[in-house]
């Protein structure tokens, strides 16, 4: 009754690696559908044109600046209008600053978003 104890571990490893490759290929096939969203609707210019600054914040900014603008990875936004002018805020929204990447706010919404951010208290 001398069996090799490594055989079950090797079988589990081979099975796990096989599953990893299978799920990777399935994910590659579904990448387009996942990018379009759950309802099969991708972002359109109509969605961006109708978006309010608060909606843009919830979608693009809340993960770094926090639900209540308290900061986290990014700085706190409360009182940012006292520290920066609206033009400075537009510049940051357009070009990014520090770890903030540029282009998170659509170009046509930068003015409206800068005004909204400057009024956060």
Quaternary structure classification: single chain
Largest sheet: none
**Overall number of strands:** 0
pLDDT averaged over residues: 83
What share of the residues lie within helices? 55-70%
The Rg value, from CA coordinates, equals 23 Å
**What letter string, H or E per element, gives the SSE order?**
HHHHHHH
Name the structural class: mainly alpha
Through-space gap between termini: 75 Å
Which stretches are low in confidence, meaning pLDDT under 50 for 5 or more residues running?
A: none
Beta content: under 5%
Principal-axes shape call: elongated
Q: DSSP helix count?
A: 7
Structure, explained:
The protein is mainly α and 121 residues long. The chain is 59% helix and 0% strand. The chain contains 7 helices and no strands. The protein has helices at residues 7-29, 31-36, 45-50, 53-65, 80-83, 86-95, 110-118. Helix 6 (86-95) packs across helix 7 (110-118). The longest helix is centred in the N-terminal third of the chain and has 23 residues, at 7-29. It is elongated. The mean pLDDT is 83.
Quick rundown:
The protein is mainly α. It is about 60% helix and about 0% strand.
What is this structure's SSE topology?
Layout: H1 7-29, H2 31-36, H3 45-50, H4 53-65, H5 80-83, H6 86-95, H7 110-118
Helix pairs in contact: 6-7
């Amino acid at each position: 009754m001398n069996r090799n104890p490594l055989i079950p571990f090797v079988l589990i490893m081979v099975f796990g690696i096989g599953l990893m490759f299978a799920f990777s290929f399935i994910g590659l096939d579904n990448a387009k559908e996942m990018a379009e969203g759950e309802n099969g609707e991708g972002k359109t210019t109509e969605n961006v044109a109708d978006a309010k600054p608060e909606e843009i914040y919830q979608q693009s900014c809340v993960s770094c600046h926090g639900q209540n603008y308290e900061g986290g990875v990014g700085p706190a936004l409360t009182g940012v209008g006292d520290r920066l002018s609206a033009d400075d805020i537009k510049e940051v929204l357009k070009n990014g600053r520090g770890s903030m990447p540029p282009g998170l706010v659509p170009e046509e919404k930068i003015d409206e978003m800068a005004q909204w951010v400057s009024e956060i208290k």
